[in-house]
Amino acid sequence: xxxxxxxxxxxxxxxxxxxxxxxxxxxxxHRAIIVTSGTDQLDxxxxxxxxxxxxxxxxxxxxxxRINLAAGAAGADGTEFLSxxxxxxxxxDEAIEAGLRVIDGPQQSRVVSVLPFVDSGPAREDFAVRxxxxxxxxxxxxxxxxxxxxxxxxxxxxxxxxxxxxxxxxDSESELVYRLTWMGNSVKFLPPxxxxxxxxAPGEASAADARFCPPADAVAIRQTRATVEKNKRPIxxxxxxxxxxxxxxxxxxxxxxxxxxxxxxxxxIDSVLGQTFGDFELIVVDDGSxxxxxxxxxxxxxxxxxxxxxxxxxxxxxxxxxxxxxxxFFTAVHDDDDIMLxxxxxxxxxxxxxxxxxxxxxxxxxxxxxxxxxxHTTKQEFIHGTVFxxxxxxxxxxWLVPTAYVRRLKYDETLSSAVDHxxxxxxxxxxxxxxxxxxxxxxxxxxPAQVSxxxxxxxxxxxxxxxxxxxxxxxxxxxxxxxxKSKTIGWPGIPEKADLLGHLAPYLPDHLVYRTxxxxxxxxxxxxxxxxxxxxxxxxxxxxxDNDRKFETGELLDLKIRDFPVLAEHGITGTIHATLRRDLxxxxxxxxxxxxxxxxxxxxxxxxxxxxxxxxxxxxxxREPALLLLPGEADVPVxxxxxxxEWTVVFGRSQAASYNVLGYEDISEADKRLNELSPELxxxxxxxxxxxxxxxxxxxxxxx
Length: 704
Description:
This protein is α/β, with parallel strands linked by helices. The protein has 3 domains: 3-228, Spore Coat Polysaccharide Biosynthesis Protein SpsA, Chain A, CATH 3.90.550; 252-501, Spore Coat Polysaccharide Biosynthesis Protein SpsA, Chain A, CATH 3.90.550; 510-703, no CATH class. It contains 23 helices and 26 strands.
């Protein structure tokens, strides 16, 4: 019977039938997946325990993507262990099981095994087995470039598989081994004492195999290592991963502990579901709420949202309960009344490297009534000295820490406040090294009901108590030394510091801001996805007559925080603009409150985004480019223009205006053409240059 807990994966691109059969003739107790892409479909029968995964998707372009998709398919089918065969070799059940013996368990293992290929050049009788102690060699086995790498699916998922943008694509497994060690795993190299894994040398099967058997010389190994060590981040494929994430095996568990937060928790959850990085689960622990908090959480249909309920036991007990059931390798902390910024998880993961196990960052407090903002940050390093100097620890809702550490050390359930301060210091004292991201991670809502206001005395006492426990074992000389060291640690530079509101207003709660979003391409489809067909300010369709290309952009109105998860789910991107509601001018920005959009105002909104791009394309040193907008129905001579485009601007419910857009490298040329027009046509024309663009838009706004 085939053991389905272990799956062997091999990239069989360009392999023939004979080579595939030689690779798996000795495998009967374990299953295998061979993967190909493009036109290479391996149209021949396979052994029963070997399945074929053919990827016809044009996006699959390299070996790492093929391996990742195959590993993901195996994981979705329940595989706990992966054996990656990185070249043609005569695989056996004994070779697979030799690797499995050194691995402790599917989730606890911190060991990966590597069984090198043996060169099959010498005669097979030279590798005679004598007795039960293992092979005795008449000819010493010579290692070949290639290996069987065995690891748990848990380990593979924690680093997100092979790097799909690797700079060493022909040695992806070596790179993977380095990254696994950076995550705290040890590597067990298995010498050929109990089994042999013979490589299939180039020429024995087909010429295509030569690419899998480069010489295993020291120079090549050093080159691979030098290339790999240029990027010490173990977790790759954060922005895009060919393998679709499995909700049952997430990389990150986001944990929210809540109590009577029905008014705020929806914003909190929506901000998490709006992350650009989507490989997470969201665990919400309700600590005995007496309002509608549980009903709000249960209203979500996203598989990633998990609700735990318990009698009121305090925040520490709630977070420990979440840690006990978390499925993510990492835990990211979030609070029930705060707003997580869209890049928060990706930024946190990107800060993990070969020296740091956990990450943290800065945050911004905002007043829930006025939107006033205050930046909060901690020093670039979190060590004993920083605790002695100012008592600071990483902001709780900026944490990204391995879940195993939270389970092992736990939150102190004897404390009602400052439980985060206590745990972070105990983690630091246990050897956990923290890395500051240098970024703002979330917006902290300041309101009368939050713990830091209602339980301020206990929070301060708990923080002082924890700080005292750190100081007690240290001598005065040691404390002084650590304080001096702390003085050399700098503060992170936060680029948004100069204009917090300008950068972060789009993420404030709906009652504080009114949002619009400019999107490009398939505007109507995106509006339909977001249920914004009735809230579309304009759609600008452009035909480039010079290059026979089409372009489309538009503005969606009244975007809500609840729309952020939809943007993330469908990969819709664009520029979000937010205006404080107190600054809105008589409904001008909000048609729902009575403002009407006429042609001039709709065109001004459309060109405010598109015109700068066109002017930049026309820019030449020492000259000032300009655009001439003329009615679309007019017979316009285009000779002398550097570019010719046609615009159709749709606005309101069914109104539209069309324009011919002539581009000139210098405003004098555009002005000359304008003066050559008939008086009637000249009166309908717009001359737009970079310098007066703002004035033009404001003029159109006032006319409207």
